[in-house]
């Protein structure tokens, strides 16, 4: 009887987390302004550049196909993770919904966990069309084991950008959050060298962007040695530090003002 009594609160707590996650995902997927760009833009740009623009080059140079697959996959998971967390959190703060949730008899971390899980799920959903396209056409010149290893790293790589989204959502207003998210995200997407090779004079600054480190981990997981310029241990350390820093700032801000 005692064991049964102790298990009920745990089950109820897990049920609350599950409900929060389900509702957060439903809300995001029912927002065309979020869902359509996040899920269609990465695969559309991958089709344009990897097949239409550089199709002949990719056919001659397998590393070019791997480079484009890695870059656009990083774009898919990170962009969806960031924008799934940042604007909605900022809007909820501005409207006082977080204060209301704190007054409810629910686990205090359920809503935050729901946003992070939704960010990971949205990043994975945005990446899946690119994965299917690359695997079906052979454009990435990768084996099934390489796809699996790289996909696992890409899924885990959503977490630093979820942390960035939570931090920006905790610091900015609802109306300004999308602009700040773009300002924080887009420069790194281009300056990290994920999309196209950079001139040697710009190589020094690539290590400042989390996109670059995730891209390097993806290639390391897939065993693509030609496109790696940093040790996986260093990339993991940088991404962990970035995640911890963003999370600490976000929790400090949310704890103070909500």
TrEMBL record:
It is found in: Membrane. Keywords: Membrane, Transmembrane, Transmembrane helix. The chain crosses the membrane at residues 34-55, 67-90, 110-135, 147-171, 177-196, 235-254. Pfam families: ABC2_membrane. It is a multi-pass membrane protein. It comes from the Bacteria. Residues 23-201 form the ABC-2 type transporter transmembrane domain. InterPro entries: ABC2_TM, ABC_2_transport, T7SS_ABC-Transporter. This is ABC-2 type transport system permease protein.
């Amino acid at each position: 009887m005692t064991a049964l009594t102790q298990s009920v609160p745990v089950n109820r707590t897990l049920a609350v987390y599950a409900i929060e996650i389900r509702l957060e995902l439903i809300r995001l997927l029912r927002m065309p302004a979020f869902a359509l760009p996040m899920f269609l833009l990465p695969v559309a740009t991958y089709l344009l550049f990897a097949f239409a623009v550089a199709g002949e080059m990719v056919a001659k140079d397998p590393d070019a196909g791997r480079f484009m697959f890695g870059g656009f996959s990083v774009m898919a998971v990170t962009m969806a993770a960031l924008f799934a967390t940042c604007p909605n959190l900022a809007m909820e703060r501005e409207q006082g919904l977080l204060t209301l949730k704190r007054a409810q008899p629910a686990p205090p971390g359920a809503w935050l966990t729901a946003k992070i899980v939704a960010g990971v799920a949205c990043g994975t959903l945005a990446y899946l069309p690119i994965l299917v396209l690359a695997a079906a056409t052979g454009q990435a010149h990768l084996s099934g084991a390489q796809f699996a290893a790289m996909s696992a790293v890409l899924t885990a790589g959503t977490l630093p950008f979820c942390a960035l989204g939570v931090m920006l959502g905790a610091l900015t207003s609802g109306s300004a959050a999308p602009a700040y998210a773009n300002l924080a995200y887009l420069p790194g997407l281009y300056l990290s060298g994920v999309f196209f090779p950079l001139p040697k004079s710009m190589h020094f600054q690539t290590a400042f962007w989390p996109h670059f480190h995730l891209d390097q981990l993806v290639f390391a997981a897939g065993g693509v040695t030609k496109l790696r310029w940093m040790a996986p241990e260093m990339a993991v350390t940088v991404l962990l530090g970035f995640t911890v820093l963003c999370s600490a700032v976000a929790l400090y801000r949310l704890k103070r003002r909500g």
